[in-house]
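Notes from hallway chat w/ T.B., transcribed later so I don't forget. T.B. wanted the structure written out for a chain they're using in a teaching module, and asked if we could keep both sequence and structure tokens in one place. Agreed to drop them here.
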Amino acid sequence: MSAPWKAASAEELEKQYSPSKWVVRLGAEEALKTYVQMGIEATRKARATRRSQLDVPYGDGEGEKVDIYFPDVALEALPFLVFFHGGYWQSGSKDESAFMVNPLTAHGVAVVIVAYDIAPKGTLDKMVDQVARSVAFVQKRFPDNKGIFLCGHSAGAQLAAMMLLVNWSKRGVTPNLKGFFLLSGIYDLEPLMYTSQNAPLHMTLHCAKQAGKPHLKSCPAWITLKLFGTLPRKMTRSTRSF
């Protein structure tokens, strides 16, 4: 049976995979600008009010850094939430993504915000590898943690989900993974090849399948996802199909 998206026109695919155009109260550009500004202000507040270690390298690359935020009360063992920002793998930054830091640290959870090389500098394969190395880094740096919870939004949700497929024995550590929070993720990547979103990604069919639903669906740890907010039909189908 052919996938429903294959019957859509190029114009319809472009519309369905451009979520900013679906914002009801604001135009696409204004919505993106507002969203980014909110993230910048939240990050500025988190850095000013929470104990933190900023720009900690988890690798040798210039963009391979994390920001770590801690609760006010110092404890030897903490639960960690590791966050991967969205932006269609081509925008976004850890420097505008600390919006969850204050409420979580107030409840005793340490938060790690991960930077990775977005397109066109970074390929999808490279991003997956960087995210895996960042998770291994957190486990090695905080071996007595009370659990690592991975959270990603949009493209970040796809990157977080790919951690289900990592062979951790080859990376010399087994992270104490306790849960995944995947928000508005995109897991069927093949349709994106036929939209303008793929221009900086240069994603091939092989890459789309390796980093998308065929491999994720074969993973025994794959979980049932819940939808948060309103998304275009093609994007909600991508989530519900799992």
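Follow-up for T.B.: Confidence is low (pLDDT under 50) at residues 223-231. Might be a good example for the class.
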